[in-house]
TrEMBL record:
<keyword id="KW-0560">Oxidoreductase</keyword>
<keyword id="KW-0732">Signal</keyword>
<comment type="similarity">
    <text>Belongs to the cytochrome P450 family.</text>
</comment>
<dbReference type="InterPro" id="IPR002401">
    <property type="entry name" value="Cyt_P450_E_grp-I"/>
</dbReference>
<keyword id="KW-0349">Heme</keyword>
<dbReference type="InterPro" id="IPR001128">
    <property type="entry name" value="Cyt_P450"/>
</dbReference>
<dbReference type="GO" id="GO:0016709">
    <property type="term" value="F:oxidoreductase activity, acting on paired donors, with incorporation or reduction of molecular oxygen, NAD(P)H as one donor, and incorporation of one atom of oxygen"/>
</dbReference>
<dbReference type="GO" id="GO:0016711">
    <property type="term" value="F:flavonoid 3'-monooxygenase activity"/>
</dbReference>
<dbReference type="Pfam" id="PF00067">
    <property type="entry name" value="p450"/>
</dbReference>
<dbReference type="InterPro" id="IPR017972">
    <property type="entry name" value="Cyt_P450_CS"/>
</dbReference>
<keyword id="KW-0521">NADP</keyword>
<dbReference type="GO" id="GO:0005506">
    <property type="term" value="F:iron ion binding"/>
</dbReference>
<dbReference type="GO" id="GO:0009411">
    <property type="term" value="P:response to UV"/>
</dbReference>
<keyword id="KW-0479">Metal-binding</keyword>
<dbReference type="GO" id="GO:0020037">
    <property type="term" value="F:heme binding"/>
</dbReference>
<dbReference type="InterPro" id="IPR036396">
    <property type="entry name" value="Cyt_P450_sf"/>
</dbReference>
<protein>
    <submittedName>
        <fullName>Uncharacterized protein</fullName>
    </submittedName>
</protein>
Amino acid sequence: MAAVAAVLLYFLLRPSHRNRGGLPLPPTPGWAWPVLGHLPLLGLIPHHSLAALAKKHGPHFLLLNLGTTSPTLVVSSPAAVRSLLKSLDPLVSSRPPNAGATHMAYNYQDLVFAPYGPRWRLLRKLCNVHLFSQKALDHFSSVRESEAQDLVSRLSSSRSAAVTIGPMLTDCTTNALGRTMLGRRVFVPGEGGEFREMVLELMVLAGVFNIGDFVPELEWLDLQGVVKKMKRLHKRFDDFFERMIEENSNGGEMCFLGVLMALKEDADGEGSKISRREIKALLMDLFTAGTDTSSSTVEWAIAELIRHPSLLDALQLELDSVAGRDRLVLESDLPNLTLLQAIIKEIFRLHPSTPLLLPRIVAEDCEAMGYHIPKDTRVLINAWAISRDPDVWKDPLEFKPVERFMPGAPTAHMDVKGNDFEFIPFGAGRRICAGMSMGIRNVQFLTAALVHAFDWELLEGETPEKLNMEEVYGLTLQRKVPLVVKPKPRLAPHVYANAAK
């Protein structure tokens, strides 16, 4: 008991961060729990709780003590994001330590968690050139179209029976990503499903609140068994990626892994080679960030369109005028679908897949919006709160794509690509999501395909007006109640005949 009392006394009396530059620190809620600090204030849906705290204590910046780590700066307004990422971005472009980066991401050898510097820039350049460039996206468009066709065929075979659409969307996006990165599908009906289990477990673990990340003094205890599970799952992923690397010379579909292996052997210039470990870390990143994010966003899109039947009808008219009803919409049709683009922008605004952007850490003492920001402060940007700021968006809780984003609308110029700080579902600055271009295209195309191919009905007794739109917090922003719908084919029968091989 004496030892416990001594530890608590240390946490209570240890000196806090002090401002040596004469500027005030950002506002704080004040009193905090011993050891836990302000952690209990986060609640079950942290982006909601943090938005409410910001309204009460500081609309731009809020300084919290989460556990015993360095303080956390919560950023909740477009002006605050601009002050950080316009001129101070190099100082806030690295990540704070966490168990996931250590035990799953090959000890920070990946793109998401790698420290800002030359190696990170090399990994990002490789992804931008060979996976996320316009040329690369166009090269793999047939893969995504094939998987969308398979999804449409599977949905049509339900014969208007009720389906839970979320898992089917996850299968579709993950298979498209698997074929792009590994040259093979990874979710195959009738097969063992080992990789499916691994991906789903990874998503669960990534969304777990790990006490050791916030109270490092207790990290060694692994109170929740999170680290043990991460190490075990990492071993399974590592074995899987090793098999994929060994099988890469099988002559199948050209894939990103093949490109990386060629670069591993042929890269020229000192420090430009990519290691086998970095290749596996990149694959881990891409499966984590590129699957559930897109599928959950498309599920939100279908739900919003069901709630707004006039918009659903208008979008189907646009799709019919561009693609007709004798074939399924293609990715090449997307530039001609103005209403679709507006609707997807509004989905990203209301339902960002990562409501709290991945945390950053401040490299040295700095100043922003008249406040002193101490070195080693963690930065947490509440993208969900920012895109609902009533000072920017009229009726911010309403789904209004036409009024906001169709040509002629006052905010039509705003985009999701990190230049408009009022609207940053993919982040902004140097650490903006590397896969943004693929994510946008995935969501646009899958939404278009599902809306083009089907009319959507709810279960008997349910009405669009009362459709549950509550959120649950996790690795991605999920629906609290999964969307269960009845798809009814609306195109020519032959459109539904072909499935992905």
